[in-house]
Design goal:
- This protein is 25% helix and 31% strand.
- The longest helix has 26 residues, at 2-27.
- The chain is elongated, with a radius of gyration of 24 Å.
- It contains four helices and nine strands.
- The protein has a five-stranded antiparallel β-sheet with strand order 5-8-7-6-9.
- It is an alpha+beta fold.
- It has two domains: 29-100, Type Iii Antifreeze Protein Isoform Hplc 12 (Alpha-Beta Complex); 103-200.
- It has helices spanning 2-27, 48-54, 103-108, 180-192; strands spanning 30-36, 55-61, 80-81, 96-97, 114-120, 130-139, 145-159, 172-178, 195-200.
Length: 204
């Protein structure tokens, strides 16, 4: 029985090897290519987390690989998505670009303030720029929650694609003009708060 099993294993290896050789002879050599397992949206930044959750490497016949296809996921880290990329599509260099410079945001933050990106809920109620209140919700020992206003009348400099933050589903990255104290408090809150929410100010 052991001999029969070993023989069957060898036969299976030979069959797989023969099939691979047949495919290679028919379609040409195989090349690694990055394929999306989740859709990406314009403006989304490729982070290591996005690479781990949205990319996979497949071996594809060279004749089917599009021009400028990305073969190594790490090459895309730090780049920005140019156009919508659906799940199952190839990742190509044409669909990526270096992130846009944010110097204008830094300049418009104002004296004594810094342009800081925060992942928040409630950004769907915001359009354009203006001023917002930033609320932080935390858990207490009794299992309930407590919400406080962490910053009032903060200038809103920009809103990223809805629900595309790496900090969690349904969150959106917004750029706020924060004082140093506000920035430290809100960046710290991202690690312990249940939720950070932005609300447009009346008339803003």
């Amino acid at each position: 029985m052991l001999g029969a099993a070993a023989a069957a294993g060898i036969m299976a290896i030979n069959l797989v090897g023969g099939y691979s050789s047949s495919v290679a002879e028919t379609y040409g050599p195989l090349r690694p290519v990055v394929v999306l397992t989740r859709p990406l949206v314009p403006g989304q930044l490729i982070s290591p987390k996005v690479v781990g959750s949205s990319f996979e490497i497949r071996q594809v016949p060279a004749r089917f690989v599009p021009a400028a296809a990305v073969e190594e996921p790490s090459l895309a880290v730090g780049l920005e998505v140019v156009a919508p990329l659906p799940s199952g599509s190839y990742l190509t260099a044409a669909g990526l670009q270096p992130p846009k410079p944010k110097r204008s945001l830094r300049r418009s933050a104002g004296k004594g303030r810094h342009a800081v990106e925060i992942s928040v809920a409630g950004a769907g109620a915001i359009s354009g720029t203006g001023k917002v209140d930033v609320l932080v919700t935390t858990d207490n020992d009794r299992g309930g929650g407590k919400t406080v206003i962490a910053a009032r009348g903060v200038p809103l400099l920009g809103v990223g694609p809805g629900g595309q933050s790496d900090f969690g589903p349904g969150l959106t990255e917004v750029t706020l003009a924060l004082t140093r104290r506000q920035a430290i408090r809100l960046v710290d809150a991202q690690s312990f708060a249940r939720r950070i929410t932005v609300l447009p100010r009346s008339g803003g």
